[in-house]
Amino acid sequence: MNYNTVLFDLDGTLIDPYEGISNTILHVLEQFGDEKLSSEVLVKFIGPPLIEGFKMFAGYDDKKARKALEIYRESYIKKGVYEATLTEGVRPLLAALSKAGVRLGVATSKPDIMTEIILKHFSVYDYFEFISAAELSPDGRNEKSPIIAYALENMKISGDELKKTVIIGDRHHDVSGAKDNGIACVGLLSGFGNRAEFADADYIIDEIAELEKIVLA
Length: 217
Hints:
Largest sheet: 6 strands, parallel
Number of strands: 8
Shape: globular
Strand content: 15-25%
Structural class: alpha/beta
Order of helices and strands: EEHHHHEHEHEHEHEEH
Oligomer: single chain
Radius of gyration: 17 Å
Distance between the termini: 5 Å
C-alpha cells in the first residue's frame, strides 16, 4: 500500500456541483440587479472560496461580496445543495479503499453543514473518518491549506505518517494546500481544473477510479 490515508476534495472530485452552484450564483446576481455571467465564468467559482469568487469574477468589493455570500448560502442550502451528481466511480472506490483499511477524510472549501448534507444525501457520509470543511464565518477557516491542516490535526497525522497521506482534488488550491502540509497530491482531470494547474502534483489522473491503483499499489 502506497498510502494509508486519503483526503478527498468535494466539489469537482466527489461530486459535480455545477448546476447547483451556477443556479445559485445567478440568483445572487439577480438579487443585486446585475447582469448574468456566462457559463465560462460561472465555472470559475468552483474551487476557490466563494467570497473570493464574487470579488474576482463578479467584480464585487469586499462589502458586496460578503452580502452576496450570505444570500448565496441562504439559497444554496435550500435547493442548490441537492442539484449535484455523485462522480461516476466514487462509490465503488470508497468501498474498495475502506475494505483495504485505508483511512478516508474530506477536505473541502464548502461549508461544513452543506458538506454533511451532500455526503448524507448520496449515502457516502459513513465512509469518512473526519470531514474538514470551511467555516460559515467569512473570516474563519476557508482557505485550502488550513482546511487540510485541520483534517490532519484531527486525524492525528504527523511526522512520517504525512508521507503516507495523499489528497485528491481538481484545482491548484488542492496542490498548493498539499505542499503546504507536506502530503502528496493527485490532480483529477475530470473535475474543473486542467493539467497546467497540476504541474506540482505528484500524480495526474483522468478519472477518479484510477486512484485505487495509486493508493493500494
